[in-house]
Sequence to fold (274 residues):
Amino acid sequence: MTEILSVMKWPLVACLLLPGILVYYGLHIIRREVIFVDLALAQVATLGTCVCLYLGHEPDDPHNYFWSLGFTLVGALVFTFTRSTKHAKVPQEALIGITYVVAAAAGILLLSKSPHGKEELQRTLVGDLLTVTPVEIGKTAALYAVIAVVHFIFRKQFIKLSFDHDHAAAGGLSVHFWDFLFYALFGLIVTSFVQVGGVLMVFSYLIVPAACGTYLAASLPARLAIGWCVATLASVGGLYASFKLDVPTGAAIVCVLGVTLLLAAIAQKFRRTT
Fold:
């Protein structure tokens, strides 16, 4: 046990503290039916990093974060003004998918010119959780706390937009402003978490626990509680499996989350038949 904690102490702290707000955002994303928006924003953030590396900066240069954030905010602006209506000719999910593919392809092209392109490409996908530091965790946790406070203060507006969008504009709510704020804050979260866990972990923590909560509960608070429990248990299980099997940490957590979702779906199916 001591040996595991010596290696996994800070990754465990990161996995217990940081995914919480992703679970909350995941419930909004599932309701909005833009499941791959986080994957697209994460890839856009990664593209910003790729551009920074192409310009000659080192992987640990602070410039990487600001390039990623800038690209992510542009993506947030695009998704704000392309949100689908009932009569849209092209659904927003299609545009999100196109954004992801183009950003991924552009990132590959840029990294192909880097001497360490293969390693950097792998790092953007699965992150480097084992090297996370207390300072990184503290900064990211503080940012997430500020975003959580903003969401709590304006929870009525955000919930109205996600869960009753058709009546939001009719009620006098500035849809474009609140949508952009929603995506911009989400962009901050994605940019920070990609630096720690990579694109795959961002998507998994966002969607899988929220999907489990949606399968197993009807109310928003209950879904949130279940999602937090799922994220916590999967994090511990993934880190333990990574240590024991000597496999990449991020990939192990993603796989455990996938198994958890399968079990939740089976449980929901079983409840319907009894």
User: Anything to note?
Assistant: The first helix runs from residue 2 to 17. The radius of gyration is 19 Å.
